[in-house]
Design a protein that fits this description.
The protein is α+β, with helices and mostly antiparallel strands. It has five helices and five strands; from the N terminus they run αβαββααββα. The longest helix has 25 residues. The two termini are 28 Å apart.
């Protein structure tokens, strides 16, 4: 199974903000959409991304700079070195990348265009479904023999 299979089951909506959006507004977007990260558009990097802002980034900002960080622009807290994947990468490869880099969200970029975002929750959900299908196939094979 690959990233494209995960994207098929998602809405396709990608939450983005500009780097000058306040951290407070970005936090409201995360809460209202019940998501853990938002992409920051306007960059010249992969898929036109300037960065990514996660709940972790906000918590770190609050711990290091205090509540005033909520009035600061997202550009002050975002992760600029965005790790991306492609729709052809396998689930195992993505799991390894997320574990190695300690990240929970991966933008998906194909041919220089942003096509989606996957989370560790998406990856785990699809991996469990894959394992359940394999187990059912084995049960069917054993009982048919």
């Amino acid at each position: 199974m690959n990233v494209a299979a995960i994207l098929k089951g998602k809405s396709g909506a990608i939450a983005t903000v500009r780097s000058d959006t306040s951290v407070a507004e970005a936090a409201k977007l995360l809460a209202s959409r019940r998501i853990g990260a938002v992409l920051v558009d306007g960059g010249k990097g992969a898929g036109g991304l300037a960065g990514i802002l996660s709940e972790r980034d906000i918590v770190r900002g609050l711990a290091e700079r205090g509540a005033g960080v909520l009035d600061r622009p997202v550009g002050d807290l975002m992760t600029r070195d965005v790790v991306v994947t492609t729709s052809s990468h396998t689930i195992d490869r993505v799991m390894g990348l997320m574990t190695e880099r300690r990240i929970r969200h991966l933008p998906v970029v194909d041919n220089g265009a942003l096509v989606g975002v996957i989370s560790i929750g998406d990856v785990v959900k699809h991996r469990i479904a894959e394992i359940e299908r394999e187990a059912e196939a084995l049960r069917t094979y054993i009982t048919a023999a």
